[in-house]
Amino acid sequence: MDDGVQSPAARDPDVADLDIAHDDPSSTLLDLTSYQLHDLDSVDLPPYLTELDLTSNRLSALDPRIAHLSNLKKLSLRQNLITDAAVESLSTWHAISGLEELVLRDNQLRKIPDVSIFKRILVFDVSFNEITSLHGLCQVSNTLKELYVSKNEVTKIEEIDHFHELQILELGSNKLRVMENLQNLANLQELWLGRNRIKAVNLCGLKCIKKISLQSNRLTSMIGFESCIALEELYLSHNGITKMEGLSSLVNLRVLDVSSNKLTSVDDIQNLTQLEDLWLNDNQIESLEGFAEAVAGSREKLTTIYLENNPCVKLPEYSAILKQIFPNIQQIDSNVFC
């Protein structure tokens, strides 16, 4: 977006040439971030480039010279004016078929572009567009390790069955209602599904996942995480959860965020000996009676706890009680201790 401050390139196109010309001639990275370029006509594209970063410009078309950068591994077109028509040519650019990272985040795409030509792609980012369906992902290479499709209009998880190497899947801020078709993602480490319309947890048998976010959905239950024994971080804030359950097997959990729900007590975490961060703020927990027993496993490890905006924080000795329970506590709500 235009913040009213012109870059040197916007004031004088020749300045862009001068800046680029003074870059290290041996560098294989060309970073043109925030030059406000409408095209690359004034820019030299050396044939040895391995990385081309065109973030935050005003490009509405792809320069055909990019098609000849046979050593290119990373191409970022983040935050431009790229449309579906503008990226159609990508599917014919055989010389750059070795591309490993393609970023089309924050543009004007309405569908998944055809990137089937990239047989070694590892990172594919089409977040912050206007994509309504994941149709087209079936043509993306099974080498993919990171897929980002957040902040779009997607309604269904599909065409991801072949991503056996996928480690990160980001589908936050869409219109998803059901967790499905995840069963083949055996190597998935991180699953981000915040700000959707999901009502129930279904991890389709995934057991190796380490980070899960289901913040700002429509969950009323925590059932569904029991088999995720490798889980280290779980984010469930801003839902309608009424009871903490299904957590006792998650012995590797380090971060648990169940803030802004409808909890009245703390349960099922006494076995979590690795827990470091516990977020319980903005719930309906009335008392700290029995709290020490409920968090017995994490007494030594826990360093951060949030309980603000619960009735129990009005107790006169609220902080003193928590400090007594957790000898190594470093933060209680917004209060940080040296």
TrEMBL record:
One of its GO terms (cellular component) is cytoplasm. The keyword Metal-binding does not apply. InterPro entries: Leu-rich_rpt, Leu-rich_rpt_4, Leu-rich_rpt_typical-subtyp, LRR_dom_sf. It holds the Pfam family LRR_4. The keyword Oxidoreductase does not apply. Keywords: Leucine-rich repeat, Repeat. PANTHER family: NISCHARIN RELATED, PROTEIN PHOSPHATASE 1 REGULATORY SUBUNIT 7-RELATED. This is Protein phosphatase 1 regulatory inhibitor subunit PPP1R7-like protein. It comes from Senna tora.
